[in-house]
Amino acid sequence: MSMLSNILNGIGSLIFAEECIICHEPIASSLHGVCTKCRYQIPTTQYWLYEENPVTEHFDGLVPIYRASSFIFYSTHSPWRNAIHNFKYHNAWRIAYNMARWYGRELKSSGLYDDVDIVVPIPLHYKKLLKRSYNQSTYIAEGIARELGIDYNSHLLYRRRNNPPQARNKASQRWQNVEELFAVRNAKRLQGKHILIVDDVLTTGATICSCVEAILRVAPDCRVSVATLAVTRSIERD
Q1: pTM of the entire predicted model
Q2: pLDDT by residue (tens digit) across 208-217?
Q3: Residues 122 and 8 in one domain
Q4: Residues 6 or more apart from 7 whose CB is under 8 A from it?
């Protein structure tokens, strides 16, 4: 590399310095946008290492789930919670993608998700998608799929109606809000496949259950797994 190239790269690093997605401090190198300090402080669940864990147990008796896990705990006042809010509501989609790639590497290393055929994000209604201009779950699906070395498809599932945001509803209302909410566009694409549904945060699991029901209704011979970037601490008390 020439001296001029070194100078230009040095100037560029000063002007366009990368910052940590969590603490926002400038960083020279990182793992998917996270500095070394924040990497060691990330509140990971380690659930992806075990076939049976609090997330899989949460879905027992609700819908048949083959594998299920979440990457980090979603805790009040946590900077990681703030990062999720930023990509969910403030157009910081790259945070979702970077965190998903990190999570995807962990899923790959666990070996429990090696036979997944396709990654499917929880879809937004087209009206909400037009208003927000992006679906954070699609970036999560893309990041995870890249690390697993498989495809993702954001068009297989769709929302049949523009339901109110789940965060505004009480737990009992969330289940009514998503009843028969989703449908499948091309059932043949799912036949006999292992489908990994991904989303940002797992709370009651009502939305995910509705997705699973929609898939199994038209493709009962497929296996469905779940991966979310975050999960509430209450999952361990269920």
Answers
A1: 0.84
A2: 999 999 999 9
A3: no
A4: none
